[in-house]
Input
Amino acid sequence: MELSMADGQGDAEGPDAETLPDEFVSDREEGDEGELGGGSDGDEEEEEDVDGLASFLESEILSGSSTDDPLDEEDEGENEKSRQVEVDVANNKRKQDLVPDGDGGNGGSEGEQNKRVRRGQAKGKAVAPQIDTGMFSNIPPELFLQIFKFLSSEDLISCTLVCRFMNAVASDETLWRRLYCMRWGLASNAKLRECAWKNLYIQVNDDKVILDKTVADQVSSWKSSRGLTDEAVKGHSCSGNTCSYTQIGDAYICEKTGRVHVVGLCHFSVCDDACREFVLDQSSGLLLCTISGHCFERWLCPDEEWDTYDNDQQQGGVADEAEPFMGSGRFGSQVFSF
Amino acid sequence: MAAPESGDGNNGAARMVTLISSDNTRFEVEAAAASLSQTLQLTILDGGGGGGDGIPLPNVDSATLSKVLEYCIKHAPAAANGGAPNATAVDRAELERFDNEFVNIDQSVLYSLIMAAHNLEIEGLQSLVAKKVADMIKGKSPMEIRRTLGFPDPTPEEQAEMNAHMLEYGWAYE
Output
């Protein structure tokens, strides 16, 4: 992951290549040689799934493959701003429906501009999202990680939308693993861990991953047989003490509302935010579900992949532990505080 | 007040070290305060920075260094007490008040502080400024974040990409 971040940084700050440590530059050069045959077509890149970090990095490398050698790039660093504007012009020509920004007229002579337009098309869109102004654009990724530790998932998503560089940093596994584990406890289900923590976090919130299809079907038919819909029932808060539940596979369904609680993610409700069956046993440090009775591993597991996390903890001190949940909105409102 | 490592032979008087900023300004500061920097700590433990020799800090200018040292001097006593287990609530509140005011500064200064705290490895300061920047980001839309952090406005293409992602992540904006 660290290496990936270094690559992302190297490309995102291409114009400032001379200020980067040598390893960043050399990493990129290696990438260039390795991926040279890949070809970089702008339209093709537009179709890529920019959400995935892997594909993001791939596109960065591809875009680098058609970049001139680093020395050339350094020479042109000061022209980066105008070049980016011109890249916009190139892209606009392709789309034929957009008008360049107001400051698009700064772009040098026409002949030079045409040359640069060709360059822009060859490089594809990956060059455009680079940050070339603003103080905080020079912050290395590891420092952005420190900053992002204090953010809620909502704010992190906002950051992923800011630009490709921040997308790469804000998609960092350690951040999302941390959020996931603070929110849901350590995932004990191995099949859940096959996807990235960020996707896992989002998917769980998106109600997509919690149930096997067969169980989901059973739940669905059970709910329709009871006349329960997916509409949330207002004014009801599920509790292991007051509700009765029907069990289907790993799922426990509240017989009054049809809310589903799943062993392994047992405080989770597919219906709305009212489910709070997530209890941290202060004495043992274990997560308990009052419905399924399932007892979780310690929510901060000391041994599995936690080296980075532990470092974060040490650096961040105590103050940041509860901090990511300070956000408001859908996520903030359903967070169990402890 | 003096840190344990400032001891050798300097009965009572706190050992002082000299730090030299990138623009050649010399700062004399208690070793205990400078030792909040992990980077400087080893040098200082080895006896560096005393007497006429200063420790050059080519990556930190004088304005930033004075700000950094302001933090270090304020936090040194608590750090010397090993996280201040016996600190009073008043002391802690005072430090908190100091911290809040300390980061209530221009973005350019904040940026310099982030880099300096990183270079000097001052954990508390790193955390403090990171949290400040995070506070600036919190609750903002991607566009507002761009502006807050001084990024240029998105190109039309970037804007289209952002819009597409907004739809994709629509759940985060309900």
Q: What stands out?
A: Chain B touches chain A at residues 107-108, 111, 114-115, 118, 123-124, 126-127, 130-131, 133-135, 137-142, 145-146, 149-158, 161-162, 165-166, 168-169, 171-174 (CB under 8 Å). Residues 139-174 of chain B form one domain. The radius of gyration of chain B is 21 Å.
